[in-house]
Design brief:
The protein has 465 residues and is of the alpha/beta class. Strands 6, 7, 8, 9, 10, 11, 12, 13 and 14 form a nine-stranded mixed β-sheet that branches. Helix 11 links the parallel strand 2 and strand 3.
C-alpha cells in the first residue's frame, strides 16, 4: 500500500504545482524510486482514460473516502498494469468495483472503435512542445551558499556560464552545458530543459533547489523582511517554505501547514536538508487554524498557494491530461474563496500572496474579485512585479495588477499570482516589489527585477566536489 500512497501523493503534488515529476518522486522518501516513477508516469499517461473510467463507473461517488489520485493509481494497476500489489482495504475496494470498471472500459473501446487499451490514448504521447521549451531552473539556497559560489562550482564541473540573461529569447537558446543567471530573479540559474541535477552533489546537499521559476514568484513577491512572522498556509512539499526561510535569513518565524502526514514528513526532510530553522510544521488543515490564537498574533505575511486544478503544469508524463470539469472547477473555486477569506482574517496581516498553478479564470481572477468585494476597503490589490510581461485577465477592475505566467511568454509553468495588502487610510495603491528588494540587493537576498547581482565576500563554504 505504501507504493500507491506515495504515487497518489506525487500526483496530488503535480496538481498543486509543487514541482515536476522527477523532483516530487525523488523527494517522496519512498525507497524504490524507479518503481514509483514508473507507476506515476504510466498513470499520467493514461490520465484522460482513467478520468473517464472513474466518471463512467461512478467510483468516487460510491466510495466517498477514496481520494481521486489514489483511485487513479489503483485503477491503473488493476486494469492496465500488472495487477494490484497491495493488500488491505483499498485492494479489496478496487476489486469490489472491478466488474463495473471493466464494463466501462469495454464500452469506451466500443465507442472509440478500438480493441487495445493503448489505442485509447491520444495520438500525441511525447512530451508537449510547451514542456520541452521550459528550461531547468535552479534556485540557489542562500541559507547554505551564495550565487557566485554555485556558479563557480558548475564552471568547475564543465558548464559554461554565459552571464545574466537579457531576454527570454536567450533562455530559449540555451543548449548543451551552458547556463545563465535569470533575467528576473536574482537567485535563479537557468539550464537547458533536459538537464538533470537529482544526483548532483549540490542538490543532494541542499545547496540548490530544483524549482520552476513561476513557483519562485509567490515567496519573492511576498518579500517579508528578516524577523517577520509568516504563514505558509498550504506548504508541502516545502520548496516555497525554504525560499521564505532564505528571504528571512532564518530570522523570524514561519508557520507551515499541511493536512497530509506523509507530505508533512516529506517537507520536514526537505527543510532539514535546506538548513531551515525557525519553522514550525503542523499537520493541520489551515482552515481549522484559529486566527485569534496568540501564537499568530504577530503574523504579518501569508503565502497562500491552495489546491487547484493544476492546469498550468506543463511537465507532465506522456499522455497526461488535466480534466477540469465545470463541477470540479466550481468546487475548487469555492474552497479557494474560503481559504483566502480565512487567511485575510488574521488580525496583524499586512500582506498576502495568493497563487495557483491554474490557467482557469474561475480559480484566479474570479476568486480574488469575490473575496475583495466581501472585504470592501479593508484590502486592495497592488501591482505585482510591474515589469512582468503577462498580467491578469481583465475579469474585473484591478486584474491588471495580477500576474500570470505561461510557457509561451515567460518560459515557465502556467501560474497566477495576486498580491493583496491591508489598506491604510488615505494611501494610494503602490506598485509592489518585495520588501527585501528595497534593501541593498545581494545575490540571494532579494533585488529589483533586472538588477545585476553584486559580488560579495563568501561567508558560507560550498560543499567540496
Amino acid at each position: 500500500m505504501a507504493l500507491y500512497s506515495a504515487a497518489a501523493a506525487v500526483l496530488a503534488g503535480l496538481e498543486r504545482g509543487e514541482g515536476g515529476l522527477k523532483s516530487l518522486v525523488y523527494n517522496s522518501g519512498f525507497p524504490h524510486v524507479r518503481q514509483l516513477y514508473a507507476l506515476v508516469s504510466e498513470t499520467l499517461r493514461y490520465a484522460s482514460v482513467l478520468e473517464k473510467l472513474l466518471d463512467g463507473a461512478a467510483l468516487l461517488q460510491a466510495e466517498k473516502k477514496l481520494e481521486p489520485q489514489l483511485a487513479k493509481v489503483l485503477v491503473y494497476d488493476l486494469l492496465f498494469g500488472k495487477g494490484l500489489k497491495c493488500g488491505g482495504r483499498w485492494k479489496a475496494l478496487a476489486r469490489r468495483h472491478r466488474a463495473r470498471l471493466e464494463a466501462e472500459l469495454a464500452r469506451m473501446k466500443v465507442r472509440h472503435k478500438v480493441s487495445r487499451n493503448e489505442d485509447l490514448l491520444a495520438p500525441e504521447t511525447a512530451v508537449s512542445a510547451a514542456a520541452a521549451q521550459v528550461p531547468r531552473y535552479v534556485r540557489v539556497n542562500t541559507l547554505k551558499t551564495c550565487v557566485d559560489d554555485v556558479i563557480d562550482f558548475f564552471k568547475r564541473q564543465g558548464y559554461a556560464y554565459l552571464g545574466k540573461a537579457g531576454s527570454v529569447e536567450e533562455l530559449k537558446a540555451l543548449s548543451g552545458k551552458k547556463f545563465l543567471l535569470d533575467l528576473h530573479l536574482p537567485e535563479l540559474l537557468v539550464f537547458p530543459s533536459q538537464t538533470d541535477f537529482h544526483d548532483n552533489l549540490l542538490y543532494t546537499s541542499g545547496h540548490i533547489i530544483l524549482q520552476d521559476k513561476a513557483s519562485c514568484l509567490p515567496a519573492f513577491l511576498l518579500g517579508p523582511v528578516a524577523g517577520s512572522h509568516v504563514i505558509d498556509a498550504c506548504a508541502a512539499p516545502g520548496n516555497k517554505t525554504s525560499q521564505l526561510a532564505a528571504i528571512l535569513k532564518n530570522k523570524g518565524q514561519i508557520f507551515a501547514f499541511d493536512v497530509d502526514p506523509k507530505r508533512v514528513a516529506t517537507m520536514n526532510t526537505l527543510l532539514t536538508r535546506a538548513g531551515v530553522t525557525g519553522c514550525q510544521l503542523a499537520q493541520q488543515d489551515f482552515l481549522t487554524v484559529d486566527p485569534r490564537d496568540p501564537r499568530y498574533s504577530r503574523v504579518t505575511h501569508i503565502l497562500l498557494d491552495p489546491s487547484c486544478s493544476g492546469s498550468g503544469i506543463v511537465t507532465r508524463g506522456p499522455g497526461e491530461e488535466v480534466v477540469s470539469s465545470a463541477e470540479r472547477l466550481q468546487a475548487l473555486a469555492g474552497f479557494q474563496r474560503r481559504v483566502l477569506n480565512h487567511a485575510l482574517s488574521f488580525p496583524a496581516l499586512q500582506r498576502l500572496v495568493y497563487s495557483t498553478c491554474s490557467l482557469h479564470q474561475e480559480e484566479n481572477e474570479d476568486v480574488v474579485q469575490a473575496v475583495l468585494q466581501k472585504w470592501g476597503s479593508a484590502f486592495r490589490l497592488v501591482t505585482a512585479f510591474p515589469s512582468w510581461p503577462c498580467r491578469g485577465l481583465t475579469a474585473f477592475s484591478g486584474a491588471e495588477s495580477c500576474l500570470r505566467a505561461s510557457p509561451a511568454e515567460t518560459l515557465t509553468h502556467g501560474f497566477f499570482v495576486a498580491v493583496l495588502e491591508r489598506c491604510k487610510e488615505g494611501a494610494a495603491a503602490p506598485s509592489l516589489l518585495p520588501a527585501a528588494a528595497k534593501e541593498s540587493p545581494q545575490p540571494g537576498e532579494g533585488m529589483k527585477p533586472g538588477a545585476t547581482p553584486k559580488k560579495r565576500k563568501k561567508k558560507k563554504q560550498l560543499v567540496k566536489e
